């Protein structure tokens, strides 16, 4: 299997669950052999995975690498999991936002790695501004000129992930609410979420059959002030994620794996299995 595909598949929730919970190590060992990593005799799995992640930084900074970097540097570094949450792959209009981080405000992050092209970027930005007023692009230095040129019609934030793995801000994002759209915001919400907004604003829910509820609720929603809709949507989205579960155990997870664990429903026993796997010697598994 192609090395790039192996790396992309390795850092996924499903792959890691198979490795840790089901002891399916073939792909893991194949990846280590393919990269030709030098593994010390007493290396444990945590050491080996750290080497794989460092290899990615040099040779294959894929989407997981960027998303994991954002989680570590912004949600866990700049802010706190007590006050901030991250959502990934959030459908907005005709696009899917790579990352949305909500603290006091909501920031959308579109990732353009060195491996990506910029063909759809302008349309993606337009879609994101239909639901959120702060949008950012995280990119590789090789794309900086192209990204800056495409994004110049919007007050978008632009960041470069440097070779030293630092987030360098090139342009600070500014709020932009000219494209906010009721339909785009409404379709992000789940039924219970848009019903909360409608009941809070109107004091009641429409008394209609279920097959008409979506249409009638949207009609009521579309009459609410756009900026108010935006603020209410952000507050509800923030409630989707709570990382109160096993906080201490979560912070003991290596930085390279936090992006997997954060978006997984890990129980206490899952953390125990992960810790045992990471502490086990590579060649004795």
Question: Order of helices and strands, N to C?
Answer: HHHHHEEEHEHEEHHHHHHH
Please give the share of residues in helix: 40-55%
pLDDT average, as an integer?
91
Q: What is the number of helices?
A: 14
Name the strands of the widest sheet in spatial order. Answer: 1-2-3-4-5-6
Which secondary-structure class do the elements indicate? alpha/beta
Q: How big is the Rg?
A: 21 Å
Q: In terms of per-residue confidence, which ranges show pLDDT below 50 for 5 or more consecutive residues?
A: none
Q: Can you count the beta strands? A: 6
Q: β content, as a range? A: 5-15%
**Biggest β-sheet, characterized?**
6 strands, mixed
Q: How would the global form be characterised?
A: globular
Task: Measure the end-to-end span.
Answer: 22 Å
